[in-house]
From TrEMBL, chain A:
To ferredoxins from P.putida and C.tartarivorum, ferredoxin I from A.vinelandii, ferredoxin II from D.desulfuricans. Residues 58-88 form the 4Fe-4S ferredoxin-type domain. This is Ferredoxin-like protein. Keywords: Electron transport, Iron, Iron-sulfur, Metal-binding, Nitrogen fixation, Transport. Pfam families: Fer4_ETF_QO. PROSITE patterns: 4FE4S_FER_1 (PS00198), 4FE4S_FER_2 (PS51379). The keyword Transport applies. The lineage of its organism: Bacteria, Pseudomonadati, Pseudomonadota, Alphaproteobacteria, Hyphomicrobiales.
TrEMBL record, chain B:
Belongs to the ETF-QO/FixC family. This is Protein FixC. PANTHER family: ELECTRON TRANSFER FLAVOPROTEIN-QUINONE OXIDOREDUCTASE YDIS-RELATED. Residues 369-435 form the FixC-like C-terminal domain. Keywords: FAD, Flavoprotein, Oxidoreductase. Its cofactor is FAD. SUPFAM superfamilies: FAD-linked reductases, C-terminal domain, FAD/NAD(P)-binding domain. The lineage of its organism: Bacteria, Pseudomonadati, Pseudomonadota, Alphaproteobacteria, Hyphomicrobiales. It comes from Microvirga lotononidis.
Length: 99, 435
């Protein structure tokens, strides 16, 4: 007997969550760069919401809409100045139903 | 917005913030609590297990109306390789007591309840308000906060930073360092819903009994990490976490680890047919005693995860958070009732009281454990689980091989993998870190 365990892509998992997106006011920004550091590149794999992606010029871009505000990217890349991290405005961002 | 001055401002409505706000407000202090989420709990993530004793010391009759899921009667520790687990179970009917020792909870619901208690105790709780900055006087004393709402500084004698592991305020103000990649773990979690009776059948539980599974081994792919599966009333919280530094160097994806854990033959049948309703991520402070920052200063104290108060070895976080919040509240109340100013010298009382509590004593006991597990992660999370499985399987299979040969083969496998010296030194290191 095979036992089904629902498998979801990260993008689909994020749809399960509730967000109030602050349109036009992303709380995390990647600073313009020529060549991303290893930590910044690692975020394309390590960010649990898959917010970071490499563009075709080999630079890292962020779409913060699905961000779960864990802070992993801040811990890895804020000190080097590659990203700028703030909390979303009060009430905005991810809103966990269970947590 | 708010013209008056408060005795205390608490930043954050998680476990430590609610404990601090409740402790001070219930003693008659004028408290303002600020929370950036839409409601208390909306930004908070935990496994989650809540220990009764630490909450009882704050709200003794919490069992009357707190949203509790199940009380744990069984704990399983699993050492996993790719197809097996070698486990230790402890199950006791003694845990079916009138006032159970620990419960599973769902934080968004629990935090709403706790926050209601804080408001009933007389504190002003303001949600959807992100504190943007600490306000200082000319001598550097913290005298209040600025928020993203209109209005100027909100003043208070003391600010309690209960802003969580990723707290921006304290680090930006230079009160403590940023968490380092090797002192925080990234954990991801899913909520799997199943009918209550199905959970009861699968785990052998009746009524509100609960089962807790914690698992380590090849599931973390050589990284320092732990997976867990906790039964709630009609859901299962299931997750895995590893050190951020390990994630960065291996570039493993947390969601891939979680999916592999769910597919593991030991886990799959437990969650089969479930409906996933939420996916969360959170950092967990893992640095232990050596990562505790400066805990107090002129006009401020820091509590809970923001102060790295988490016992990773025993997987206790929220009880240290609640206790540090309560102790901070009690210390501030003592200073306040003497009519003394909230200076660094006076607020040192908080640290003295915390040092004398289980919080710092427990973290001190395991002060060497984080570094040991980090530097030897491959052995503890890959080699040994695989060897344990081999030994157990060798022992279980009856195939006509004389037992003495089986024993020799098992011993040889251990020595081949780690050498005699390696085995002894791992054991000694572990014993010393544990002692």
């Amino acid at each position: 007997m095979t036992i089904a365990v629902a498998e979801l892509r990260v993008e689909d998992k994020l749809f399960l969550n509730r967000y109030l997106v602050d349109a036009g006011g992303p709380h995390i920004k990647v600073r313009p760069h020529e060549k991303p550091s290893p930590n910044l590149i690692a975020l394309t794999r390590v960010c649990p919401a898959k917010c970071y992606e490499l563009n075709d010029k080999g630079q890292v871009e962020i779409t913060a809409d699905g961000c779960m505000e864990c802070g992993t990217c801040r811990v890895l890349c804020e000190a080097s100045g590659e990203i700028e991290w703030n909390y979303p405005r009060g009430g905005f961002g991810v809103l966990f139903k269970f947590g | 917005m708010i013209e008056e001055k408060f005795d205390a401002i608490v930043i954050g409505a998680g476990m430590s913030g609610n404990a601090a706000a409740y402790t001070m407000a219930s003693r008659g202090m004028k408290v303002l609590q600020l929370e950036r989420g839409e409601y208390p709990g909306s930004k908070n993530v935990q496994g989650a297990i809540m220990y009764a004793d630490m909450l009882e010391k704050i709200i003794p009759d919490f069992r009357e109306d707190a949203p509790l899921e199940r009380h744990a009667v069984e704990q399983r520790f699993w050492m996993m390789d790719d197809t097996s687990h070698t486990g230790m179970h402890y199950r006791s009917d003694d845990f079916n007591e009138a006032m159970p020792n620990r419960y599973t909870i769902i934080r968004a619901q629990f935090d709403k309840w706790f926050s209601r208690k804080v408001r009933e105790a007389g504190a002003t709780v303001l949600c959807e308000t992100t504190v943007t900055e600490l306000a200082h006087d000319t001598k550097g004393k913290v005298i209040g906060v600025r928020t993203d709402r209109a209005g100027d500084v909100i003043f208070a004698d003391v600010v309690v930073l209960a802003e969580g592991v990723n707290g921006l305020l304290g680090t930006r103000a230079g009160l403590r360092e940023m968490p380092k990649p090797e002192t925080v773990a990234l954990a991801v979690k899913e909520m799997h819903f199943l009918p209550e009776e199905v959970i009861g059948e699968r785990f052998g539980l009746k009524g509100n009994e609960g089962c807790v599974i914690e698992a380590a081994g090849t599931i973390s792919r050589g990284m320092t990490g732990l997976a867990f599966l906790y039964t709630n009333r009609e859901s299962i919280s299931l997750g895995i976490g590893c050190l951020v530094s390990d994630f960065a160097s291996t570039t493993e994806s947390p969601y891939a680890l979680l999916d592999a854990f769910k597919r593991h033959p030991s886990v799959r049948p437990l969650i089969a047919g479930s409906e996933v309703k939420e996916y969360t991520a959170h950092l967990i402070p893992e640095g232990g005693y050596k990562a505790i920052p400066q805990l107090f200063g002129d006009g401020w104290v820091v509590v809970g995860d923001a102060a790295q108060l988490n016992n990773a070895v025993h997987r206790e976080g929220s009880n240290l958070a609640m206790t540090s919040g309560r102790i901070a509240g009690e210390a501030i109340f003592q200073i306040n009732s003497r009519g003394d100013p909230m200076t660094k010298e006076n607020l040192a009382l908080y640290k003295t009281m915390l040092d004398n509590s289980f919080v710092v004593k427990d973290l001190m006991k395991y002060k060497d454990m984080p570094v040991l597990l980090h530097t030897h992660s491959r052995h503890f999370f890959m080699t040994y689980p695989q060897l344990m499985s081999l030994a157990a399987q060798n022992f279980m299979r009856v195939d006509g091989t004389p037992k003495i040969e089986k024993e020799k083969a098992t011993t040889a496998a251990f020595i081949k993998a780690r050498s005699r010296w390696g085995l002894v030194s791992d054991a000694v290191r572990l014993a010393f870190a544990w002692r």
